[in-house]
Design a protein that fits this description.
binds (3R)-3-hydroxy-3-methyl-5-(phosphonooxy)pentanoic acid; single chain; 12 helices; about 35% helix; six-stranded mixed β-sheet; 14 strands
Length: about 400
């Protein structure tokens, strides 16, 4: 049996494991201005990187001259090296200054701790972890994070924002080569602790991928052209100011408006794209109902290209927000029902205000609890590796 088939390598193997969190946009990226592999956006965007304790992509990369070709395993299955992965690998090899490592074949094993391709930014976490891990094993000479964010962007546009923690801006840039279309940190995670409740309405893969959806929108939606040309920059400035001032009422309203406007551009696309479903719309109703009941914005929702909700709250309101979500959307892992006594709002009064009863148990499949977190973390220890260090195949 050849070495390649058995997996074992005799030459030195360089390996690194990287864990990265997804990010959730508060000012959405939707639309590319190039047809090629650069993924240059028509508008800048702003996002929070999620803490990776619970929700993350983990990627182990091994490099050896014994590996005849690049191979990749995603969530337990070997997959072909698709064009976008090949682009990222090519860009990183171009920047590799170590002649021995430049010749290495790569083995990549990646796993998500959350549903893939369901509008939970799995590709952002995955391409971020891939970029950082391959850059590490190939000793890539690129400015960090600047130039590396531009490489991650070629895998999945929004991935460039996961290379940094906290509140992150992806600047659309103006250059045709994309060198100024990079991500920078606006505020570190510690500036303002915001919690997120992720309501998984559907773990199914979305019917329209973001790449193909945004292409159709750019071609057909007048509203998207107006949004990108005249609205997003002002929204980003306002979001940054509200975040700097820790003004949740203002920040939350802007986040919800931006999510709604993004989904309006989807509806304005021809033929229209529907990412939200009836359960998503119920979540929107409950959040507005709760805010009206309390008398100010204590919860804010946002939805990416999928039906799953990300609900933000400040720590002093998270128990209330979670209790209300768990009450109306009982999921597999919902905590026990809460009453007025421990969260300050009477669920019966809220039901009456909303004219809405809790949805059937299981309509929502899962709740994840996360918070704004830091950028990717690298590990060189064998315990965290997803590869067996004898065979260099997935564990
Ligand atoms: O990076 P992509 O190609 O998966 O597109 C992401 C698009 C949205 O998630 C809907 C918005 C965003 O800015 O993340």
């Amino acid at each position: 049996m050849s070495k390649e088939k058995s997996g074992a390598a005799q030459s030195v193997v360089h390996s690194l494991t990287v864990q990265a969190g997804p990010n959730i946009a508060v000012a959405k990226y939707w639309g590319k201005r190039d047809a090629g592999p650069l993924n240059l956006p028509i508008n800048s965007s702003l996002s929070f990187t999620l803490d990776h304790s619970d929700i993350h992509a983990t990627t182990t990369v091994a490099a050896s001259t014994d590996f005849a070709k690049d191979r990749i395993w995603l969530n337990g299955r070997e997959e072909p090296v698709v064009k976008r992965v090949a682009t990222v690998l090519r860009e990183l090899r171009k920047r590799c200054t170590d002649p021995a490592r430049k010749k290495c074949g790569l083995r990549i094993v990646s796993r998500n701790s959350f549903p893939t391709a369901a509008g939970m930014a799995s590709s952002a976490a995955g391409y971020c972890a891939l970029t950082v891990a391959v850059a590490g094993v190939l000793r890539v000479a690129a400015s960090y994070p600047g130039e590396l964010t531009a490489v991650a962007r070629m895998g999945s546009g929004s991935a460039c924002r996961s290379l940094l923690g906290g509140l992150v801006q992806w600047h659309k840039g103006v250059k045709a080569d994309g060198t100024d279309s990079i991500a920078t940190q606006i505020q570190p995670a510690g500036h303002w602790p915001i919690n997120m409740t992720v309501v998984v309405v559907s773990a199914e893969k979305k019917l329209v991928s973001s790449s193909s959806g945004m292409q159709t929108s750019v071609r057909t939606s007048d509203l998207l052209a107006h949004r990108a040309g005249a609205l997003v920059d002002g929204r980003i400035a306002a979001l940054k100011a509200a975040h700097a001032a820790k003004d949740f009422a203002r920040f939350g309203e802007l986040v919800m408006r931006d999510s709604n406007q993004f989904h309006a551009t989807c509806l304005d696309t021809y033929p229209p794209i529907f990412y939200l479903n009836d359960v998503s719309r119920c979540i929107i109703r409950v959040v507005h109902g709760l805010n009206a009941h309390v008398g100010r914005v204590v919860a804010a929702y946002t939805f990416d290209a999928g039906s799953n909700a990300f609900v933000f709250s400040e720590p002093q309101h998270t128990a209330l927000v979670n209790a209300v979500i768990a009450h109306f959307f009982p999921g597999e892992n919902s905590p026990k029902k809460r009453t007025r006594l421990d969260v300050g709002v009477c669920m019966a009064e809220l039901e009456a205000r909303l004219k809405m009863k809790p949805l059937a148990a299981g309509t929502v499949t899962r709740l994840y609890h996360s918070k704004v977190g830091g950028g990717p973390r690298s590990y060189s220890t064998a315990e965290l590796s997803l590869m067996d260090t004898d065979t260099w195949l997935p564990k």
